[in-house]
Amino acid sequence: MGSRGENVSSKLPVIWITGLAGSGKTTLARRLVSELRGSASGVVHVDGDDVRALMGGDLGYGATDRLENAHRIARLCAFLQAQGLWCVCSTMSLYPEIWQYNRQHLQPYLQVYLDVPMSVLTRRDQKGLYSGVRAGTVRDVGGVDLPLQLPLDSDLVLANTEEAELAMNVQAIGLALKHVRNGPPAARASA
After folding, report:
1. For the chain, which residues score pLDDT lower than 50?
2. Residues carrying an active site annotation
3. Whole-prediction pTM value?
4. Each residue of 108-124: b (16+ CB within 10 Å) or e?
5. What is the domain count for the chain?
């Protein structure tokens, strides 16, 4: 991989979209990838569920296995970024050590947290996770019976409760990317 001293603005960013199950991470990432591909080449979507399956499905959903999957995803994003690709990642990965790793190893990096109320998540419940916890047939659901820390200090915290917010969220990420690609203000001032 490239030297850590590389000019941040010469590398393409990793956009890390995180949130609880059903918050719309994958939907937002797919829309963002579609928008980016309209004006850029080499845009890759890395989805947490896809990586889990790609790596052989050897991990469960407890805290230790979720953390290992998050490490795999972060390392994959670092590899793709070093290849000169845009990387849009949609994953739960609600662990402070992952966010810290990403900020140290994925530059430029934009962390986006989708803040969706539990009432909306349980109403969406596409995978039957929330109803499964209530019925006692599913366990280790992040934010319900598996405690997680929410990344409220993300670069962007976006509401994603209505379909209409999707386009606004893509636009907000696009605006934030303009600043991220030029590095943090201190780096720009010293360049």
Report:
1. 1-8, 184-191
2. 93
3. 0.83
4. bbbbbbbbbeeebbeee
5. 1
